[in-house]
Amino acid sequence: MLKGLYKVEIHTTHGGSGRGVMVARDGRLFGGNAAFAFAGRYLESGHDIAVDITTVQRNDNLGFKRVSGADNITLRGTRRGGDRYIFEDGTALLAGAPFTAHVTAISEEAAPPAGANAPDGVRNGLYSLNIRMLDGIDSGNTGLMVLHDGTIRGGDAHFDYVGAYSSAQGRWKGELINHTHTPTMGQRPLFGDREVGIGFSGTYDEDGAEGEATALAGKRSIRFKAVLRRLAD
136 — alpha (psi -120 to 50), left (phi > 0) or beta? Predict the structure, then answer.
């Protein structure tokens, strides 16, 4: 059964490739990476899966914008043992060529239990994530998060996040684990490829949330500000 957090690896017939994460829950799909985001639905029949992606968006460093001509994509996939799936499509979405997506489950064993999300709490859905380091560190990152009933799942081309939050009356707080699903090969020296625990607190509204967080990377404590903007319910 397709459910939970997955790593997605995309390969095109022209040699292009890309990676990201995907969250599957109750017939809904959300995912992407720092450049692309998508939301859609899936239907399983035995080992076969049909996927309709209804939203594809692009990050132009100012916000997420829809990719022209890629509003509706239909994928057909099969389960290839355990929690691994392969999807194929004839749409020239990446590098102007049809693509194949390999989807592999990511362990959620490190995830804390869900927090308490009040009726007026953070809205469930897919959010863009933009991070800016504090304390004079000139660095940042972008990615995606799926917030759902006190749980956090998300990531980007190299990292995945599992966590939990509580929210009420415009305030929220939580914790998450930042894990490397694909080695960075030195491209992200701040956290490296270590598993990092992060705690945060801040505010939210109808459009998103923000807060300050502290990451414990080995013996080092790193502070940063995170801004989330809701992309899809």
Answer: left
Statement: the pTM of the whole predicted model exceeds 0.70: yes
Q: In the structure, what pLDDT confidence band is assigned to residue 47 with cuts at 50, 70 and 90?
A: confident
Alpha helices in 40-180 (DSSP H): none
- The contacts of residue 199 (CB under 8 Å, 6+ apart) are 173, 174, 175, 213, 214
Instruction: Tell me how far apart the alpha carbons of residues 155 and 177 are, in angstroms, rounded to a whole number.
Output: 11
Query: What are the structure tokens assigned to 22, written together?
Result: 């995907």
Residue 93 tokens read as: 């979405």
Q: Which two tokens stand for residue 54?
A: 């209804």
Confidence check: pLDDT of 176 > 90: yes
Mean pLDDT of 213-221: 86
Per-residue pLDDT of 143-165, as tens digits, reads: 999 999 999 999 999 999 999 99
The CATH number of 125-232, from 3.40.366.10, 2.40.128.380, 2.60.40.1510, 3.40.50.2300, is 2.40.128.380
> Distance of alpha carbon 56 from its chain centroid, rounded?
14
Q: What residue type is 89 in one-letter code?
A: D
